[in-house]
Design brief:
- The chain is an alpha/beta fold.
- It contains 6 helices and 12 strands.
- It has a 7-stranded mixed beta sheet with strand order 5-4-3-6-7-12-11, with helices on both faces. Strands 1, 2, 8, 9 and 10 form a 5-stranded antiparallel beta sheet that branches.
- The mean pLDDT is about 95.
């Protein structure tokens, strides 16, 4: 991994001529993403993220923390103890520069299970980090092992069924070469460099709920967004 996503974050934080990220997936065209968006304050966040940050309690794990904006809000405005992790060393360096107290370049699947949290945050489609639906059980079991008694997982995601064409009967044309329509291959480019492609997943609520129940977790729909997106709480 070239860590281009993290490089963009670190460039923005250190005023090192940051540029927009170019993202593209197996089902969507190239799109520009402003790195500044990752540095947004609470008032600029979507309502799903605001709700999740208001529901966070106790000791918090911010998984896939990116530039650390959610962590900083919880740390400074809510006075909560936050551990912020991301697989990007550059993003973590930016988090430290921004004042995140406990920021680590770490994969959630490698976290020591002696560490326990009251709240695990997976925001900005964070559940997608498990990559494929076939990996969801192992992913949820790992999250469950990191929860304290009475703990909760707060995650947002999207149902991307709207991106597929309809047939005459109102059904959707789903490519036959994917196991689940929410699985995509992500490509990121930054400053004329290309990242290695990686798997990502947008999980619809019903599929998430079924996976949660299969792994001994309750799942409730907290809030729906404006565009097929939602916030869920697992406990």
């Amino acid at each position: 991994m070239k860590d281009l996503f993290g490089k963009a974050i670190l460039d923005y934080q250190t005023n090192n001529s940051p540029e927009n990220l170019i993202t593209e997936t197996s089902i969507s065209e190239e799109d520009e993403m402003s790195v500044a968006y990752l540095f947004r304050e609470f008032k600029e966040m979507p309502k799903l993220e605001k709700k999740a940050l208001q529901m966070a309690k106790g000791k918090v794990l911010d998984a896939g923390c990116g530039a650390g904006s959610h962590s900083l809000y919880l740390q400074t405005e809510r006075n909560l103890e936050v551990t912020s992790i991301d697989i990007s060393p550059n993003a973590i360096e930016a988090c430290v520069l921004r004042g995140v107290k406990d920021a680590r370049a770490e994969n959630i699947m490698q976290i020591d299970e002696t560490e326990k949290f009251d709240t695990i945050l997976l925001l900005m489609n964070g559940a997608g980090m498990c990559g494929k639906l076939s990996e969801i059980s192992g992913f949820l079991q790992k999250l469950k092992s990191l929860l304290k008694e009475g703990g909760q997982i707060l995650l947002d995601s999207s149902d991307i069924i709207y991106m597929f064409d309809e047939d005459e009967d109102g059904g959707k044309w789903i490519p036959s070469d994917v196991e689940y329509y929410g699985e995509v291959i992500f490509n990121i480019s930054y400053k004329n460099q290309k990242e290695d492609p990686f798997n990502w997943m947008y999980i619809d609520y019903n599929t998430l709920q079924n996976a949660a129940h299969a792994n001994g977790l309750n799942c409730e729909l907290v809030l729906e967004g404006e565009h097929y997106d939602y916030l869920a709480r697992l406990y």
